[in-house]
Amino acid sequence: MTRASRSDITRRRLESQALTGAPVTDPAAVVGRLLALQAQDLRWAKWAVAIRAPGTTSADVDALLDSGRIVRSWPMRGTLHLVAAEELGWMLALTIPRLWAGSTTRRRDLGLDEDTIERARDVALGALSGGRELSRAAFLEVLNSSGIDAAGQRGYHLIWHLAQSGTLCWGRQLDAQQMLVLLDEWVPRPRRLERDEALGEFLLRYLVGHGPAPLTDFAWWSQLTMADAKTALAVAGPHLTGLDVDGVQHLLPTASDVGPLRSAAPGRGRDAVLALPGFDEHLLGYRDRSFAVEPENLTRVVPGKKRNLPAPLDPGRPSHRHLAARLAAQTHHGAAAPLPAAAGSGGPGRRPVPARVRQLP
């Protein structure tokens, strides 16, 4: 196994994540490369796509969602992500059991027993079949009119459980909100994988977009058990290699280049400073975040369990992490100033998502 430094790991992760090296030209390919891109805040998810596929606009990502090429749903960790439409089904099949078990107490507190959830599923099938769609508010009204109390957090959790179990997903956007649709109709040709095959695919695809990384990072990111992670390694092992960092094996696909890093395209190399959105995979793609932010500065970038601030990234410095802390210090006590649209953006509906900022003074 080849030995590597922490700086080697950081630089190779930046390239795997399409933050350095050759830019991706298709925003859908960004989502496919990362497999799942956190998207509880859709604006930041669009930003994360655009910084990896320069020139991408908000409208471009909307078009991908509207066409069904990518889907916004809850494939893992109980959190909304963007995923390639055909991949969602097998990911849910792997992650549902543990997520479902982990939500038992919350379901009980909300009075959502199995009978109530199945009644809500029947209502959803009746209201949405045949290509129909409903806004969240309209769907909750349908539940209430069908005798299912959807007040407070009950409505949200009913949608969450129906999406987790493969009945619902978010479809196209209408009047600045996504519509609920039936997953089987919105994604009529999903990939179908046997369980062990899916586990191997999960690990391999994670490493394509996040590697090099240890198996523990994959288990944290996917929220699979370590037993499942080890099965994934056994299946995907022939397609993987490793780099040793202080005695810890960091996995990456065999096809990855472990030699000197190639020359980067203009604006994508050591002199670039990239403006990362909150909840970016560069940070949240790993359990061990010390490769991205010094532990003593982590709370300045992630000030709370459900808060994650935007931060600049300097690929030219393997540690580059002081920059993140500097921007966090500016935004911690107030919203950051909005980033301007690029010149020649093409008018309304074509405002580019910011992909670069100048070096901070």
Using brief descriptors, characterize the structure shown:
Arc Repressor Mutant, subunit A; alpha+beta; 43% helix; 16 helices; 361 residues
Please tell me about this protein's structure.
The chain has 361 residues and is of the alpha+beta class. Among the domains are: 2-10 and 195-253, Arc Repressor Mutant, subunit A, CATH 1.10.10; 104-183, Winged helix-like DNA-binding domain superfamily/Winged helix DNA-binding domain (Arc Repressor Mutant, subunit A, Orthogonal Bundle), CATH 1.10.10; 274-331, no CATH class. It has helices spanning 6-16, 27-34, 42-52, 58-67, 88-102, 104-110, 114-128, 136-145, 153-164, 183-186, 195-210, 215-222, 226-236, 281-284, 298-301, 321-331, and strands at residues 2-3, 36-38, 70-76, 79-84, 168-174, 177-182, 240-245, 248-253, 274-276, 311-313. The strands form 4 sheets. Strands 1-7-8 form a 3-stranded mixed β-sheet. Strands 2-4-3 form a 3-stranded antiparallel β-sheet. A hairpin with a 2-residue loop joins β7 (240-245) and β8 (248-253). α5 (88-102) packs across α11.
Quaternary form: single chain
Overall structural class, as computed from helix and strand content, comes to alpha+beta
Strand percentage: 5-15%
Q: Mean pLDDT, as a whole number?
A: 83
- Assigned CATH class of the domain at 104-183: Mainly Alpha
Which CATH architecture of the domain at 104-183?
Orthogonal Bundle
The name CATH uses for the topology of the domain at 104-183 is Arc Repressor Mutant, subunit A
Order of neighbouring strands in the sheet with most strands: 1-7-8
Taking the sheet with the most strands, its summary is: 3 strands, mixed
How many helix segments?
16
Number of strands: 10
Radius of gyration: 21 Å
